[in-house]
Structure formats: C-alpha cells, structure tokens
Amino acid sequence: MEKKNKNSKKPTYSKFSQQELPAWKPILSPGWVIATFLTIGAVFIPIGLLALAASDSVVEIIDRYDDGCVPDDFSKNAQSFIQNPNTKKTCIRTLKVPKKMVAPIFVYYELENFYQNHRRYVKSRSDKQLRDPDDEDETKSCYPEANTADDKPIVPCGLIAWSLFNDTYKLSTKNKAITIDKKGIAWKSDIKAKFGSDVYPKNFQKGKLIGGAKLDEKKPLSEQEDLIVWMRTAALPRFRKLYGKINTDIEAHETIKVEVENNYNTYKFSGRKKLVLSTTTWIGGKNDFVGVVYVSLGAICIFMAVNFILLYVFRPRRLGDPSYLSWNRNPIG
Description:
Order of helices and strands: HEHEEHHHEEHHEEEH
Structural class: alpha+beta
Shape: extended
Number of domains: 2
Mean pLDDT: 90
Radius of gyration: 31 Å
Distance between the termini: 30 Å
C-alpha cells in the first residue's frame, strides 16, 4: 500500500489560491473604448487649460548678473576679479516689474552648470556630525574638507557645506528698502531631523582656500537656514534655491534696485548666476509642463476617439458572441 507524501508542497485548494474568485472581466467593445477616450479627453483638457492659466498668472523676473557684474577691465579674466580680495564686488542692477506682484514673493538664486549631483560631492558630508555634537569627530566621509591643518574637526565638514553660496542681495524701490525674510525657507523636516539645535560651527572656512559663505559660530546649525537649503543637493546641473521671501506687494511698473554682492566663483567652471523673483499660484511657480502634458494627452485621446468612431461607422466589424468566452462557458463534467 502506497504511503501518502506528507511533505507535499501542493497548496490546499481554495478559490483564492486557484484565482477563481469573482472578478470583473470587461469586454472592450467599440462603444466602451470610444467612451473611455472621450471621457479622458474631456477631463484632461480642462485641467491642462487651468494649469496653463495658473502658470501664466505667475509673475516672474529673471536677471542674469554674473557677466554684468564684472568690470570691463576684468572681462577677459573674470576669475582673477572674483578671487582678488581688493576688488569691489558690489554691483547695482535694476529690475522692471511687468505686473503687480502679490506677496509672498519668493527670492531665488539660480545656478547653471553646477553639478551638485556629482558622486564625490554628494558623499562629502557627515550626517552624524550635523545632528549630534558628540559626533563632531565623525569626519571620515568629508574628505578633503574634514580637518584643519592641526587636525581639528571642521563643523560642518565636507565639500557641500564648504561651497556654501555667498552672494547677497539688497532690494529697494523708491529709495525704500524691501525686507527679505530669511526664516522659514528650509524644509521643517530638515531642521528638526538633520541639523542639531545644539551643534555649532567650528573651524569653518578657516583654511587657506575659502569655498563660500561663512557661518555664525554663535548660532546652531538648525537656525542657519541658508546652509540647510544649500545642503539639500540638486539633482540637475541647473537649479534654483530659495534665498528668502518678500511679504509685501510690489506694484506694477515699479523699478526695483538690487545691490548684489558678487562673491561666488562660478567663473572657474563657466557657471551662470541668476536672481529670480517669483510669485506662486495653486500649482506652484511658473511651469507650463504640467498644463502642456494634460492638454496633449487629452487631445491625443480625443483624436483616437474620433478615429475609432470613423472606423466603426465606415468599416465596422461584427463582434463575436461573448457566450463563447472561456469564463462564460460551463465547465465540462
């Protein structure tokens, strides 16, 4: 007498394991397909038009100043100008407001040809050191900006912090200064989780080669939001980072005077610098991509629906009998 195999891996029969549970098995008839395409088109096109209208209502002023803020004497050697501590870096720019800008107005700096996503650059930081003062010696991953010449740890260490953007902007209109609010520009999650409230800068930008801005050693890293914004590295070589917010309206056709401190050396790698003032809407800043995608997809669906209607009218095909489908047939036996 044969013994039953007790170690069989055959699952216990159930409708779930054999995929026999009731399921919706639609038949894609011409009517269903045409109705689906028409519905998608009817929904997507209005959404796309709303997104385009919202993007068009954003007031955005962009001013590239890296070339214009170099004196004519240094036009052929801008790098020597930016590296010379005796040259005056202050530059005056004027911006014309095309339409009324309703607060909050966001002030950005935009960099091009700057690869923050480079592997060695991204890895050159110490998250432990940024969070806990007891881990200030955790600088192994921060090469080459890890320790000073006398082997004291740099806080914050690494190339990302070392290259902190240090151009500054002062705005005014009608000889009245425009206040730029620097609070609340960083992600709250970064402030609470990534930067310690009891971690203070030490030995930062005190080497022979200065990378960018300096930090206030009396303020903890969690309060230095310019650094926090900069430390969230960008994925593309062209990016914007938030510099501050203006909480007052600026009327149309006003002239904004901008006093730029042109300190950041983008000339060495043929980078470009821009100042951006922008309002926002429910969709965010000025960006036509979402609207164009929705309108394009909606138009394609309408086009396909019209083609299917014409084919169905002029060259129809007889549909098969759904009763012959496998799930509609009675099982044998």
